[in-house]
């Protein structure tokens, strides 16, 4: 492994890889994108040309056999995450896997275990939490400026329902709004509260037009002390992604909770002293995410978010989906 640059391979040509993750790695302090693979060599070649990637493979196996690759990013459909994470770990590659990392907590646990056994780093690609604005939000909460936390509300919705062939609408592939976007407010609440939830109650709209996946879901995630996350997520609704942390004497409002491009990354703190806009640096959170994994791979810093976090987040998602299907409150 080169200690000046972590050499990345990309398993798949998904839009998130082309638009965000690959440019992020290329702009990071630590990483270079060495190769990209697809089951279609032509598709991989087009992606490589568009992104300036020197090496192309027509299969994932070929990329994992490349000794010039230190780490892989996996943006494949959700049902393929477990297989290719474990195969990458067995090939000695560090793994950054798109969210949700698996189809259920059992799969996630096996992935975490395989990476630990192979001595490689594993990270679930929740890019937002690598940006320093969340450190700042957490610091404000801990300072007591908004008082005791009484609740968190988050939302993440968008409308892509016309694209019926999209993998998001294939139940066997791990489709559905909880997996695709509901996982964000759940992850954020767990991070900001520094604890795991106790129960979940979720109501969802399952669409027969979209292989019966949850196209919209609204839920309540219970934490200790009467605190809860209320959230909604959807793939057949107008776009929005706010987060609000409500305290006894104030609140924090994050209008765009998971993107930081331009001036959209700031947030507002409201207290008895007034309203304060907190500006944050316009940093590429995908680059920061890549750097965090690289420093851990080199043994310079521990992972900011332990691999086990992916397993714990999947436990909550499991409970949410079970609650929505059964129309019951589920103990986590």
Automatic annotation (TrEMBL):
Keywords: Oxidoreductase. It comes from the Bacteria. Residues 6-125 form the Gfo/Idh/MocA-like oxidoreductase N-terminal domain. InterPro entries: Gfo/Idh/MocA-like_OxRdtase_N, Gfo/Idh/MocA_domain, GFO_IDH_MocA-like_dom, NAD(P)-bd_dom_sf. Residues 135-253 form the GFO/IDH/MocA-like oxidoreductase domain. One of its GO terms (molecular function) is oxidoreductase activity. Belongs to the Gfo/Idh/MocA family. This is Gfo/Idh/MocA family oxidoreductase. It comes from Paenibacillus psychroresistens.
């Amino acid at each position: 492994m080169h200690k000046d640059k972590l050499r990345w391979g990309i398993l798949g040509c998904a839009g998130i890889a082309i638009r965000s993750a690959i440019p992020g790695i290329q702009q990071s302090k630590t990483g270079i994108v060495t190769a990209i693979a697809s089951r279609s060599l032509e598709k991989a070649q087009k992606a490589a040309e568009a992104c300036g990637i020197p090496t192309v493979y027509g299969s994932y196996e070929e990329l994992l056999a490349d000794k010039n690759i230190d780490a892989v990013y996996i943006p494949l459909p959700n049902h393929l995450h477990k297989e290719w994470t474990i195969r990458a770990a067995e090939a000695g590659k560090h793994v950054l896997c798109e969210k949700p990392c698996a189809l259920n907590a059992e799969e996630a646990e096996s992935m975490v275990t395989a990476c630990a056994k192979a001595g490689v780093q594993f990270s679930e690609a929740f890019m937002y939490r690598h940006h320093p604005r969340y450190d700042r939000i957490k610091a404000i909460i801990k300072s007591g400026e908004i008082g005791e936390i009484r609740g968190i509300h988050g939302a993440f919705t968008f409308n892509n329902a016309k694209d019926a062939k999209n993998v998001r609408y294939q139940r066997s592939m791990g489709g559905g709004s909880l997996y695709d976007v509901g996982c964000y407010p759940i992850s954020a609440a767990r991070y900001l509260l520094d604890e795991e939830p106790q129960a979940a109650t979720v109501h969802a709209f399952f669409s027969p037009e979209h292989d019966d996946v949850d196209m919209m879901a609204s839920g309540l995630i219970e934490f200790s002390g009467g605190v809860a996350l209320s959230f909604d997520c959807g793939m057949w609704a107008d776009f929005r992604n706010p987060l609000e942390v409500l305290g006894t004497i104030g609140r924090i409002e994050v209008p765009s909770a998971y993107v930081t491009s331009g001036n959209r990354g700031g947030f507002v703190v409201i207290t008895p002293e007034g309203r304060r806009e907190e500006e944050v640096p316009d940093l590429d959170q995908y680059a920061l995410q890549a750097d965090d994994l690289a420093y851990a791979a080199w043994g310079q810093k521990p992972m900011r978010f332990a691999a086990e976090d992916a397993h714990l987040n999947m436990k909550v998602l499991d409970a949410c989906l079970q609650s929505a299907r059964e129309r019951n409150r589920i103990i986590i």
